[in-house]
Design a protein that fits this description.
The structure is a homodimer of 601-residue chains.
Chain A lengths: L2 H4 L2 H4 L5 H28 L4 H6 L3 H9 L7 E2 L2 H12 L7 H23 L11 H24 L8 H11 L5 H27 L4 H9 L1 H16 L26 H32 L6 H17 L6 E2 L1 H9 L6 H16 L9 H13 L4 H10 L1 H17 L1 H21 L3 E6 L6 E3 L6 E2 L3 E6 L5 H17 L5 E5 L8 H16 L3 E5 L3 H7 L4 H4 L4 E2 L2 H9 L5 E2 L27
Parallel strand pairs in A: 6-7, 7-8, 8-9
Antiparallel strand pairs in A: 1-2, 3-4, 3-6, 5-10
Helix pairs in contact in A: 3-15, 3-16, 3-17, 5-14, 5-16, 6-7, 6-13, 7-13, 7-14, 8-9, 8-17, 8-18, 8-19, 8-20, 10-11, 10-12, 10-17, 13-15, 18-19, 19-20, 20-21, 21-22
Chain lengths: 601, 601
């Protein structure tokens, strides 16, 4: 419980040198240039005034520099949280109203508090319950929705909607109202930005630039688009022809103060704030881990909760909205050579200076150009190959993925991610509730025992072994009982049954109850029950009960020992499904997966 | 998909013989005598007029005789479902109103539909998610609440309440209003019934009766109490001294008709009906299985859903309320020699005759006697030793149990059982999200590998093996990554890492992602990753991916093979925590449970 555990700055601060400073400064300048259009664009996406995006990029970055553990993470507004903020605040008030802005502020404050509490109580593991496919599906679907929602700015029409279908419908019905000057500017920006993303870096490298420099300059594409857009509108006064511009952005620095406390509104926003916290945390930690791994470094997820919590809380008291670590921006920060979180603090200074001195020059910035930067950024989040990969690997994961995508597109981000999490948990529970059992035999010449249906193994008709491929808990305990009872009917020659437990990691009270019942029932039928390869932690628990006293057979350390001990009573014979000694009158067992136990077909 | 699968009567019906008929008739007469006071008492407990209890014991029994698969199960009103019906109907209307009776009818109808749908879609496995400790805790708590709620009838006071604390408080404040004649009758009945339960059977056996006959006559205790109660009240006209009596019970047979359809009320009752279905099903199946096991018979849980669904649906169209198989009654049916569900149909005829001819004689039946029969019956459901047993065995299960008991006592049956189910699922997920990992070594002289901390085993410093004691899925995939990365830092001599997978029953997409990341990271660090003892189904999945191509090491069939193959490069040495080759500077691993991986202390 060292202090530096909670203040990573105490760890890297004292070692700070001039060279580190120079590196951090260079990275900060580059990230600042990139962050200015981004913060304006994401504020637009969140339905907030442009300065809110700038404010969210000042003080929160200082807070993260003090409390954050990921060295190269660049914190600030991001696309997904902007979309989630718009959805949550939109439930409280209409976009553009003072209540809407206040709701975004409360969301940041609450989400900061939630992250801090989670961090202090070391609850980072909660994020593990957002499975990889669900997060990936959620981000893909959000990317699609965000891109679609920005098309109206490219077309210069007024077409909103709460889900993809509403957005597409509104675009379709209003497309005739397209403002051509807006479309020219927006379309040009889109084409330029896509070109920059794909072709600019190779071109720069051909022109002799190094890989790193080329990467960084290519990432600054949006800045060129912004400058060109401002010049075009100002020169031709396109704003008088219907091109929507950014207009006046206040030159003030953010006001400091707690958001207004209205218990009912806070309660209404609490669930949304929790989701924003979790999603922001998962996104940021995965970015942070990827970058840290490149430097053979590790980040502490629980400290990240505190760092991100401090950042969001600060956003909530300095006129901002929810922030987290962004992927593209952090990658630039990393490539530009940032070494410590101080780079973030320098970026904050840069944004503060921009807020004071640069905003007048942004007056003519066309919203269509900002929308184009958003579209190009979020389309890179859409990851269809991942969906195909998961489809091939696991149908359960794919089901959770498709449900998340569909629900996000059709009913919005909150219902989408909730559905994904709940469904993936339920599918996991369903899978473990119908475990795989295998009848096993000895692989000849080894001490190893494998599934009779997959390997050529030796078994005995009088001593059978079932390998249980799951922990025994309430959801599957009765399933084991049914299987054993069915086997009892189908294998009249059986004198010994060994339950082989290398995969049984836990036996809960319901599982114990079932084992006791099986032991009793087999005893009545003249069959001795044995266990083998029971793990230490499981055995410790069983020793606290009467089960081991009542067990009719033994507990063998190794399956091989079990077979040696029981072989005296049973003559081993090669397993041959053709000459089974099963009872052909018997009914099939409930576990279709339990090979070799069903009567001969 | 044979017809007899859905109509078990087609199975036993054609084999029906005179002898079976005689046995079923005897059992039916005995169960009828027992069921008359029970059905009146449980209707009283449910807040319904007495005849509703009788009606629920007529046609539903016919329905179960046709569709039920448990041969000796006696269906009808039971204590727990009566309590749940009172709680659910009480949310719709006040006890005694026509809407309240209608709500009970709708509950029976809906719960019948739910059970039928579950049965047709083979969803009996859902009941497995009610863990044994949760069901046991729920029944214990319900027994306590029911017993407490009946005390007012023994005291002859008007003291209600929605939870145990309200009930106890009301009893405390109103105890001065106790009606003494009621207390004398109720107290006498209680003492008599407790005596019957404990002492009557031994006495009967001493008088020369056989064990079975003694059991059955002892079970008829409530009938003696009822007769004595009626005679006492009628002789002394105690009803004029404040003793509440049953009064007029209509002599009609039940009216047939669908419950009135009001969508909003049906929606309000749907959740309660689902809970009633599940609890009734779990209770009944466990009774049915216990009795079937005594005859070496099995019941089909999915067919039971259909049988119980048909019974409840019939209750819902014949002026009844939710029914299920009862424990005490089924045991009597079994002991009395019932052989087929026809015994249930004969019981129904008996109750119908009683409704027509016997009800006038029940006019003076004191409610206090019915309350006494309920109290004695439900106190046998309270199972404190089970709570203690679970406490000793599993703290997780105990937590779910205590939460269920507390929530049921404090907030009622529905919140109680819901809390228990959700909590037991969450605790299970939490446990599997922090799996046990073990560093393993070879047990000398065998091919067997066990935990270095529990067994004297041989290990190598250059080829380490971690046994993963859990399926890899989203909730624990990152935990494995953290552990391996930490080990990488603490064990600089490591050249090979074997992940031993006999307990890995499933690897989902997130788990695959983590394995890929581990493989990459170890490769960068010059460590080769191997797998051993991967199960067939897991291997099949992995073969569909590129992981096996990218894996730097091999997949060994058996851990022994792995060590033989890697031994060429590594010199085996006895494991000794005192002379560890770990890096003492390294930080402790996140898994405190991963023995042998933390730096020397």
């Amino acid at each position: 419980m060292k202090l530096a555990n909670y203040f990573p700055i105490l760890d890297w601060g004292p070692k700070y040198r001039g060279e580190t400073f120079a590196n951090d400064m260079v990275a900060a300048v580059i990230v600042t240039i990139m962050l200015i259009p981004q913060s304006l664009a994401y504020a637009l996406l969140a339905g907030l005034p442009p300065q809110v995006g700038l404010y969210a990029s000042i003080l929160p970055l200082f807070a993260y520099a003090i409390f954050g553990s990921a060295r190269q993470l660049a914190v600030g507004p991001v696309a997904i949280l902007s979309l989630m903020t718009a959805a949550a605040a939109g439930k409280i008030a209409a976009q553009g109203s003072a209540e809407y802005i206040e709701a975004a502020l409360i969301l940041a404050f609450l989400s900061g508090l939630i992250l801090l509490v989670m961090g202090l109580f070391r609850m980072g593991f909660l994020a593990n319950f957002l499975s990889h496919p669900v997060v990936s599906a959620f981000i893909t679907a959000s990317g699609i929705i965000i891109a679609a929602s920005q098309l109206k700015h490219i077309l210069g029409i007024d077409a909103g909607g709460h889900n993809l279908f509403e957005i597409v419908y509104a675009l379709g019905t209003k497309i005739t109202e397209t403002n051509l000057p807006t479309l020219y500017i927006g379309g040009a920006a889109l084409i330029f930005l896509f070109w920059v993303r794909g072709q600019f870096k190779p071109l720069l490298k051909k022109l002799g630039l190094g890989d790193k420099a080329a990467t960084i300059i290519a990432r600054a594409g949006p800045v060129f688009a912004v400058v060109a857009g401002i010049l075009a509108v100002a020169a031709m006064r396109l704003d008088q022809q219907g091109v929507k511009i950014l207009g006046d952005v206040p030159k003030n620095l953010p006001e400091i103060g707690l958001p207004s406390f209205a218990p009912d509104i806070w309660m209404q926003l609490l669930g949304s704030a929790a989701l924003i916290s979790l999603i922001g945390f998962v996104e940021s930690v995965s970015v942070g881990q990827t970058l840290a791994a490149k430097k053979r470094d590790r980040i502490d997820p629980n400290q990240e909760l505190i760092g991100l919590g401090a950042a969001s809380l600060t956003a909530g008291v300095s006129s901002g909205y929810p922030v987290t670590g962004g992927l593209a921006r952090s990658a630039v920060n990393f490539d530009a050579g940032a070494e410590t979180p101080a780079a973030g603090a320098f970026t904050a200074v840069g944004i503060a200076l921009a807020t004071i001195f640069l905003t007048p020059y942004l007056f003519y910035l066309p919203q269509a150009v900002l929308a184009a930067t958003i579209i190009v950024a979020v389309l890179s989040l859409v990851n269809i190959p991942e969906v195909i990969k998961v489809w091939k690997y696991s149908k359960s994961d794919f089901a959770a993925m498709i449900a998340t995508i569909f629900m996000t597109l059709a009913f919005g981000v909150e219902l989408g991610v909730t559905t994904g999490v709940v469904l993936s948990l339920l599918l996991h529970l369903y899978n473990t509730s119908r475990p795989h059992f295998a009848l096993v035999g000895q692989v000849p010449g080894t001490h190893h025992f494998r599934n009779v249906n997959r390997h050529a193994v030796v078994t005995s008709d009088c001593a059978l072994t079932i390998r249980i491929d799951e922990s025994l808990y309430f959801a599957n305990a009765r399933f084991l009982e049914d299987t054993v009872y069915c086997m009892l009917g189908n294998r009249p020659d059986m004198k010994h049954l060994v339950l082989m437990c290398p995969a049984v990691n836990r036996i809960d009270a319901s599982g114990l109850e079932s084992l006791e019942a099986i032991n009793h029932r087999l005893k009545d039928a003249g069959v001795t029950l044995h266990l083998s390869e029971v793990k230490g932690p499981v055995m410790d628990r069983l020793k606290k009960t009467h089960f081991l006293d009542e067990l009719t057979g033994q507990v063998f350390m190794h399956q091989y020992e079990a077979m040696q001990a029981l072989d005296g009573e049973c003559v081993a014979s090669a397993f041959d499904p053709g000459v089974q000694t099963t009872n052909p009158e018997a009914s099939p067992c409930p576990s279709k997966r339990l090979a070799g136990l069903d009567p001969a077909k």
